[in-house]
Amino acid sequence: MAETPNYDVVVIGSGPGGYVAAIRAGQLGMKTALIEKDDKYGGTCLHVGCIPTKALLFSAEVHDYFKNAKEYGIVCDGFSLDWAAVQARKNKIVKKLAKGVEFLLKKNGVELIQGFARLAGTGRVSVTDAKGQTREVVAKHIILATGSEARLLPGMEADGKTILTNREVLELGEIPKSMIVIGAGAVGVEFASIFHRFGTKVTVLEMLPRAVPLEDEEISAELEKSFRKQGIEVHTRAMVEKAAKTAKGVSVTYADEAGKSQTLEAETLLVAVGRAPNTQGIELEKTRARAERGFVKVGPYMQTDEPGLYAIGDIVAGSPLLAHVASMEGIVAVTHAAGKPVEPISYQHVPNCTYCEPEIASVGLSERQAREARHQVKVGRFPFAGNSKAGILGVREGFAKIVSDEKYGEILGVHMIGPRVTESIAEAVVAMRLEGTAADLSHTIHAHPTLAEAVLEAAHAVEGKAIHI
What we know:
Elements: E1 6-12, H1 18-27, E2 32-36, H2 43-48, H3 50-67, H4 83-107, E3 111-114, E4 116-119, E5 124-128, E6 134-144, E7 148-150, E8 163-164, H5 166-169, E9 178-182, H6 186-197, E10 201-206, H7 217-230, E11 233-236, E12 239-246, E13 249-255, E14 261-266, E15 268-271, E16 275-277, E17 291-292, E18 295-296, E19 309-311, H8 323-337, E20 352-354, E21 359-364, H9 367-372, E22 377-383, H10 388-393, E23 399-405, E24 411-418, H11 421-433, H12 438-442, H13 453-462
Parallel strand pairs: 1-2, 1-6, 2-3, 6-19, 8-15, 9-10, 9-15, 10-11
Antiparallel strand pairs: 4-5, 5-6, 7-16, 12-13, 13-14, 17-18, 20-21, 21-24, 22-23, 23-24
């Protein structure tokens, strides 16, 4: 009988949390194995999430520039969309990055094991491969990084053609003429932006009072205004009652804000109502780890109540379901497992980015949250209409907003909607992490002309001294 392998760390799941944890473990000199149930590495984010979605969003942006080429002094007659080529480019990007992840894992001495992993006792993992053969591995530390899957509403089942989740919508063979999107969170509004710009008639239904409900209220209002101006229908306080396939696609019935029943029909339906943790079948219940609705409870260093067992990423209770959060949680967990000093994550300093058009980015408290926390609040806003680089790019919608504490000037939150704000938010995160004030930002020289100057102007606006408005 072959000897059971022993590892310092076994990571289960190769998404942005798992593969980053495994690479860092290798860098720290730990004997590491990474178990992945699929035949490719990178997880949901790389294969059916962040990366392919943003590839499509960029193609949609380029398509928009062609449609409006005359505005930039370019005559562009007879251009057309080649959807197959768009899909091929997206797939090429994903494949190249996946190969890169595999290379980095091997470069850092991580052993790759394919199969479905189950917890088999303290420090033990049972792995069943595609042929049904099972082996057991033993490790001092185990890191769960099994990610999440899209939720579907009761009675709905994705069919890959009419009723879709984020997985199936990425593989559509052609652009649908019409689409209903249930859910106006990040996934819903990103796909609404993609398909609207490619010519699909898009209608978004959101059960809560506003789109992107996790964002500052002014951001939500600006996005809804922009979507409607673009021609994307948005219905908030819309409670979906049922969805049924029809000869031409799908029919969705919902109760509107007044409680009146409404029916919409479209070729396709995208369900974007949240994510469910992938903790079923891993036999977490056989450990001391505590879970709530499938989400695992952890301490400040991502450790569970089971000795040597950590959890990171989308399966963690209370953690934002974001790839960059999973990656940092992986670094924290594996550094702690190695016995090295490491700082717990400050979840107040997590950037949220939504890549719809216009883009949205935020960090920290919204204005309402700051007031509810009894801060004396001062707010500075600056519109991109007053930003020279936005004018050059021809995208002048939106604004930057800084929420600060009146007494000390501490930056409590930064909220932006407009061109390339998902890049500009990093400045705000650094400022907050270093306990910077709005005055600190207002005295930081920004290059001109740049979109980032909107953050500078918002900082000046906190004291009512914005220059360009």
